[in-house]
Amino acid sequence: MPGYGDSPLVETVATAEGRVAFLDHVLQELGMWRPVLVSPSMSGRFALPFLLARGDRLAGFVPIAPAGTKVYTAEQYRQVQTPTLILYGDHDTSLGSQALQSLRHLPKHRVAMVPDAGHACYLDKPEDFHWALLGFLHQLK
């Protein structure tokens, strides 16, 4: 994502609207219509505004202890109709429970906690993570 890791900061993604436009452009360029968006940690700054603005373009959403959940209100989350699997590791002391508190307002959500895993639960317990993800994907229409 622009501005994270070793990538340079791009001014067009400095706002939530810019991040929505960026992600929308990426999906269009890839020819993806109604994908399932999997969003770990810092990618939440891109995925959450996209979910709120264009959730109808997604078949599903899988936030994994995403950053930026406190920026939005419970009422904003309640407007989203995208099926969501909220995933986090039970040893995540930073964003896991904080994100859950905000995201639990999404009306079509399920929660999966990965036991004995930290913030990067997909790295700590990849098999448990993938079973939870695959279970969610199989339930989507």
UniProtKB/TrEMBL annotation:
One of its GO terms (cellular component) is cytoplasm. Coiled coil: none annotated. It is found in: Cytoplasm. Transmembrane segments: none annotated. Its main location: cytoplasm. Keywords: Cytoplasm. InterPro entries: AB_hydrolase_fold. PANTHER family: PROTEIN ABHD14A, PROTEIN ABHD14B-LIKE. This is ABHEA protein. The gene is Abhd14a.
